[in-house]
Structure formats: C-alpha cells, structure tokens
Design goal:
Helix content is 65%, strand content 0%. The longest helix has 22 residues, at 89-110. It folds into two domains: 1-79, no CATH class; 84-152, no CATH class. The chain has helices spanning 10-28, 35-45, 54-73, 89-110, 114-123, 127-143.
C-alpha cells in the first residue's frame, strides 16, 4: 500500500468549494444542500408532491463518488474504522451513527441541512445561517472535550 499524500490546501479547497457553489447558482438556480436528495427519494417512496429536485440525488451520488476518488488518489482508501486506541469499533460506530441521526433530525426540523444552511445561506449573507454556524461551532467546542475519551 502506498503512503498517504498530504491533504489538500484548505484555502485552495475553500476557493474550489466557493466556485462549485457559484456554479450551482449559475446552472441550477439554487445553492448546495444534501438533505434535499433524501427528501426527493422519500417523496418517491411516499409521494406527496413532485418538486423536480432529481438533481439533488445526483449531487449526493457525486459527493460520495468524489470522496471515494479523493481517498483513492490520496492513498487513504482502506477498509477500516478510524477510532481511538481505547475505543471499540462498536462504540465508534454508535457515536458516528448517533451524531449522523441527530444531524438528520435537526435538518428535518430546520427544513434544510447543515451544508445548505451554512454554504448557501452563508453565501447569501442570511442572518439565520450565520447564527446557525456560530451555534454549531460553539456547541462543537463545548462538547468536544466530552468526546475525547474516544481518542485516548
């Protein structure tokens, strides 16, 4: 297995993400978001309305494929569960799925996801988006010491 390469420059990656967001506004007429794809699929399973958001499903497929390609090109593609030295795989997966479920429930309550709110709302200078980002980072800073047991 070849050694992992360095991660991308965060400033270059931020500019690239901004350009993708700009392209999304230019070509789709709206910003980025992840939870809309799950809503689109759910609407097909239990149809309520046809919102024409099929492109959101392709966005999520592209995110998954892009992450896979990026990991492969960076030499980080391997089958493992990253965890702390004293944490079990089961505890790590429980924390990951629990956190993902909490974010998903929050996205459903807020009628949007963190990527849509932070990226799109932030780009549009929405006061709610900036308040959300401040609260999100604040809560993360407060709770991160409680999660250090996982990595010790």
């Amino acid at each position: 297995m070849k050694p992992a390469r360095d991660y991308a420059n965060p400033y270059a990656a931020g500019v690239a993400l901004g350009l993708v967001l700009l392209a999304s506004f230019a070509f789709a007429g709206r910003g980025l978001g992840a939870s809309g794809a799950f809503g689109w699929v759910a609407a097909r399973v239990a149809p309520v309305t046809d919102r024409g958001d099929l492109w959101l499903v392709f966005e999520i497929v592209g995110v998954i494929a892009g992450g896979f390609v990026s990991a492969a090109l960076g030499g980080r593609l391997r089958r493992e569960i990253e965890r702390g030295p004293h944490a079990s795989s089961r505890a790590r997966l429980a924390c990951a799925f629990g956190g993902g479920a909490a974010m998903g429930i929050g996205a459903a309550i807020a009628r949007g996801c963190t990527s849509g709110l932070a990226l799109t709302g932030g780009a549009l200078l929405s006061v709610g988006a900036w308040a959300f980002m401040g609260a999100m980072f604040g809560v993360a800073l407060l709770l991160s010491p409680l999660m250090r047991w996982e990595w010790r």
